[in-house]
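User: I'll paste a sequence; please echo it back and then give the predicted structure.

Assistant: Echoing your sequence first, then the prediction.
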Amino acid sequence: MTESKLAIHGGEKYRTKPWPSVGNASGRMFGQEEIQLLTEVIQSGSLNRVGGTKVPQLEAEFAAKYGTKHAVAATSGTAALHVAVGALNLEPGDEVITTTVTDMGTVIAILMCNLVPIFADVDPRTGNVTAETIAKQISPKTKAIIAVHLFGQMCDMDPIRALAREKGFWLIEDCAQAHLSEYKGHLAGTIGDIGCFSFQQSKQMTTGDGGMIITNNDQLAYRARLFADKGWPRGTGERGHLFLGPNYRLTELQGAVGLAQLHKLDEIVARRRHTAEMLAEMLDDIPGIRPPYLVPGTNPSWWIFSFTIEEKVLGVSPQDFAAALQAEGMPFHVGYIPNPIFDYPVIKERKTFGTSGIPWTLPQARQGITYEDKDYPGTMQFLSTTFVTSWNEGMTEEDVRDIAGGVAKVANYYLKNK
């Protein structure tokens, strides 16, 4: 590549070669292991979790991997969160505090249990909630916290756990993006009461779609397993549905792929860490570029790579800088989601159960709850200034050098033309 190329001002793109993608084999570690285990399932003729062997084996090995007593599989990360919240058996109208910056699956789990989501602001450096932002949202109706480990970096969990214990709140970790992420030597999902994982296509390990919860709490595990299987206590030999629960049973086909992926997870995360850390070091040498901020004691597993710019140093807005990067073929855009999650119509316009407005309109719910952008300055800063790109185990050192080179070219252009 030559330093003279800057596509936004004429000339060729810095990079035209496609980037490895989590959407296909270029960015994923699929191979004979998955094929062999899938073949075993097909040859067995038993594709259903009930009576199968792969899903129970996946649950046992997943629990062992994380050092927990229990693991319960589900059909998606959203389903895993629904199972976790359902296992708490809270009362309609109770409140669950979570983040403004997450996938809708986090909030669906709250709403589907007729609970009211309450949103805490985020640290603009990480996009994660903090104990301080959570504490500001506590009310007499608060019963639980869902801490989302965004982009594969864990929240600062010691003060969050201390707050939850002090107040007597349940603490759920949404680890959908944080397989094998670490905080002070603890794996994601092992600090709170329940940890929830996603196996969706883009996650560190995938079954296409799927999910898992982990816990050391025997009672929560018992309720979670029932909740994920229509409240059916199959071990009793009787058909009886003890309470309301959906059917979130993972299939044996997904269990087979999950086992193969779990066996590769250490290598998958190691590859992501190697290239992401390499890129962070290279970006740190570019004037006006700030590599991702890491909370002390954390070791991310890199679902997304992010950085920010110093606007005053470069003399350019994040939006214009992003446009220049994209013109050079760089895979970055600004903002993980376009708006805080409470701005989606489902929440903003209360489009939940018909026109009822439930759970906000429940008689036992706290009345007058509103969500306004102005009350979340950290969120608005994070979403308007953070550059993001999906990360994967297919990224090579050559890819990293191309990204760093493209970012440097754009940054140097603006530095010279302030």
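The two ends are 24 Å apart (CA to CA). The mean pLDDT is 96.
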